[in-house]
Design goal:
The complex is a heterodimer.
Chain A lengths: L9 E10 L2 E2 L1 H10 L4 E6 L3 E6 L11 H6 L2 H17 L11 E7 L4 H12 L12 H5 L3 H10 L5 E5 L4 H14 L5 E8 L6 H8 L25 E2 L1 E9 H6 L6 E10 L9 H15 L8 E3 L6 H15 L7 E3 L2 H4 L6 H9 L2 H4 L1 E2 L23 E2 L5 E8 L3 E8 L5
Parallel strand pairs in A: 4-8, 5-6, 5-7, 11-12, 11-15
Antiparallel strand pairs in A: 1-2, 1-9, 1-10, 3-4, 7-9, 10-16, 13-14, 15-16
Helix pairs in contact in A: 3-6, 7-13, 10-11
Chain B lengths: L2 H15 L20 H15 L14 H12 L3
Classes of the chains: A alpha/beta, B mainly alpha.
Amino acid sequence: MSTQSPHDRIVITGVGLTAPNANGLTDFREALLTGRSGIANMDMRYFGSAPAGLCDFDATKYQKRRDIRNGTRAGSIAIYCAGECLQDAGIALEQLDTTRLGVFLGLTEHGNVETENEIYEISKYEYDTSYWSHHHNPRTVANSPAGEVTVRFGIPGPHYTVGAACAAGNLGLVHGAQQILLGEVDYALAGGISESPRTFGIFAAFNSQNALARHEDPTKASRPFDKNRNGIVISEGGAVFLLERLDHALDRKAKIYGELAGWCYNSDATDAVLPNAERQAQCVRKALEKAGMKPREISIVNTHATGTKAGDEKECTALREVFGDTCPDTYFNNTKSFIGHCMGAAAALELAGNLPAFQDNIVHPTINVDELDEACALPNLVLNTPRKIGKVTAILNNSFGMMGINCVTIVTKYPNA
Amino acid sequence: MTRAEIHDAVIDILTEINPDVDWKGFVPEDSLRGTLESMDFLDVVMELRKRYKVEVPEADYGHLSTLKGCVDYLEAPLASK
């Protein structure tokens, strides 16, 4: 039970999302409980075919076709998620002081898609740069996807994006909470967005790194913890949460998905791509400390595991160090096995997919594990089929990224009765 | 290109730039400003360059302020296309 004042506690009161296997939290949860993958083979110029996760949502629900054309895929995903989130939260912008609403979105990277598209376009004109689009600069400024949200909805409050590699979905959420606690805003649209599979470069780079997943059945290509896993499936997506102070949410009788009880972000400070289990464990411990919780009080640990040999093993090493074998009521799962690696959106989507567990007390599984890698055999790792457990009261969400960035969030049930 | 063909070509370009507008029903003498934003005008210039190799210098942008103005302006450079 938190001893903090309700004014200093941050709760999630809205969720908007698009994932490769679903749109909206209800559909997403159903997909995760029924084993529905969102991965299919995708053809792309220069590179050829590879398994990938693409979203199928109606961008015209919130955007004119002109604005879709002029903007970015990341912006369309962000606008869709923000619109769905506001609707879910029961927020009408015209009744709100929107100078007190901020937009804070995590990104793995931004501008690769737009730049590669322009280079391809001018290649048709012998690389004459007079054919380079004037839209390139607004499309590629680093704040673009969050800025597109403010332009679309006429939100004059602050906005920015958080560059945090594959930890960005968690860090965007944390920034939203911090901006509220700093008194800069009353509400935050916060989460993570990715358009990464819309260009070949990320596929080619992971392929050159021997870290791109391959499987004859694309729905089985993303297989964290399986002995025969062979890399990452690249996906797009987005999840945006509405955050506000607990007292504010109670005053307006908002639906509360959970309380953002703790977090930590740190740096490996050792390598650009190889993870560091010691620093990951440190990040998990500090998040627990901030939440005032013991490891055994966590019901679900949603792992970051992406399906690489080294990455999955390192994370399991870190989790064993923290949770050991003295946490009989703590269960471990993984969402990337369904949707691939949604990059900047990954952590936000993965947290969202687990939030309904506070109501149904079910741990969604890690699918595609035909033969568990002994190095990844965590106790209570939920494999292939959902598991109903006694009571879900706390979710710990791991996310780690290149340049050794780690971010862990903890969300607790509210009310925790 | 005939004047009618130029008119259709401009409609094609405008439709690609802003597909939310019924350009075929647009009054040729009405101002495009308000329906097109500044970046859209640059798109028109870019599409003329890409499709017809027509360069529109900035000093001539005013000639593109109506649909009729676009057709008038393009009649000479597109006559031989």
